[in-house]
Amino acid sequence: MPEMVRNKQVILKDYVSGFPKETDMYMTESSIELQVPKGSNGVLLKNLYLSCDPYMRPRMTNIKGSYVESFKPGMPISGYGVAKVLDSENPEFKKGDLVWGMTGWEEYSLVTAPQLFKIQHTDVPLSYYTGILGMPGMTAYAGFYEVCSPKQGECVFISAASGAVGQLVGQFAKLLGCYVVGSAGSKDKIDLLKNKFGFDEAFNYKEEPDLNEALKRYFPEGIDIYFENVGGKMLDAVLLNMKIHGRIAVCGMISQYNLDRPEGVHNLMYLVTKRVRMEGFLVRDYYHLYPKFLEMIIPHIKEGKIVYVEDMAEGLESAPATLIGLFSGRNVGKQVVAVAPE
User: Fold this and answer.
1) Residue 311: what pLDDT?
2) Are 244 and 154 in contact (CB under 8 A)?
3) Ramachandran angles phi, psi of 299, nearest 5°
């Protein structure tokens, strides 16, 4: 008989409107067989690290036609994570493999249609595969190099710049010889941007009564590239300050995720007068570049040319509060939950 174990899980109570709360999720315990059903093509995972990401907020709402499925009330929520394969009926994976990809917010997950990448490089922290070596790293790489077509010496602005993606975009831009400015929401984050990630300048958007004036101060000649993570008032101010033939990569809009009615954008006509290209993108369209990305980034990490800051919460029990903290900017750096020892 296969072994049965207890399996702690984080469950979505019901669809959320407005700002999410810890009580929108609850912990439960079920039991799970430590064996994959024969012939199922599935993989049984022991989850080690779970990733908290802004895109998870829209998944807590019942939205139709989104690029990513809504969570189901009464079921465990899911997201990117790092895990160890305990059993496999899938030819791509074997027992003992370390993987990253989509998994459940629980101690053990039976994944029937695996969207998983095998981890080849284990001489870096495994938690990096929730961040710099996982989805956020690929997002930064694809958004900056593929969507923005950057050139040496260009002026780059990044909002939510100390987060999982922003901190990398800034460092990629500096490696290319760009002038880089980031915005964030606390003194600690501003210090991090300037002193750890090497941004040329950074400002706290909460202390700026006029975002347009703030951007004019840091970009007197205008902005070539804007890496958009925020939306709303920040996007409106950026549009006033773009250079002719500037590029905007739209990665996300965290300022809008908790609003029942998204804010309007008023300055879109500047896309016409300044011939600006504004393009949204999804990282999954670029995963074919993952091997090329690893070739570039692993040496940079080992040589200390790129640094990465994580905010680590301990234990699955901490996951609901940790995810909610993301939307009030409580995290400093990439938010990760450590579920089990490696």
Assistant:
1) 95
2) no
3) -60, -40
**Which one-letter amino acid corresponds to residue 46?**
K
CA 261 to chain centre: 23
The domain 4-131+309-338 is placed in CATH, from the list 3.90.180.10, 3.50.4.10, 3.40.50.2000, 3.40.50.1580, at 3.90.180.10
Characterize the bridge pairing of strands 179-184 and 201-204.
parallel
pLDDT confidence bin for 252, thresholds 50/70/90: very high
With beta carbons less than 8 A apart as the criterion, state whether 336 and 311 touch: yes
According to DSSP, the residues that pair with 293 across neighbouring strands are none
Structure token digits, residue 33:
């067989």
- Domain ranges in the chain are 4-131+309-338, 135-284
User: pLDDT per residue over 93-103, tens digit each?
Assistant: 999 999 999 99
Which pair of structure tokens corresponds to residue 182?
Answer: 């980031």
CATH 3.40.50.720 fits 135-284, yes or no: yes
- Quote the tokens at residue 2: 């296969």
pLDDT band with cut points at 50, 70 and 90 for residue 89:
very high
- Three-state SS across 236-248? HHHHHHEEEEEEE
**Which pLDDT score is estimated for 61?**
94
Work out the average pLDDT over 311-326. Answer: 96
CA dist., res. 214 & res. 211, Å (int): 5
Name the pTM for this structure: 0.94
Cα four-point dihedral sign 150, 151, 152, 158 = negative
Record the tokens describing residue 86, joined without a space: 């305990």
- Selection from 83, 86, 137 nearest residue 337 by Cα: 83
Q: Which two tokens stand for residue 189?
A: 């984050």
Read off the pLDDT of residues 268-297 as tens digits, 9 standing for 90 and up: 999 999 999 999 999 999 999 999 999 999
Helix/strand/coil for 285: helix
| CA-CA-CA-CA torsion sign (5, 48, 41, 96) | negative
Residue 262 has pLDDT above 90, yes or no: no
Q: Residue holding tokens 């640094």?
A: 307
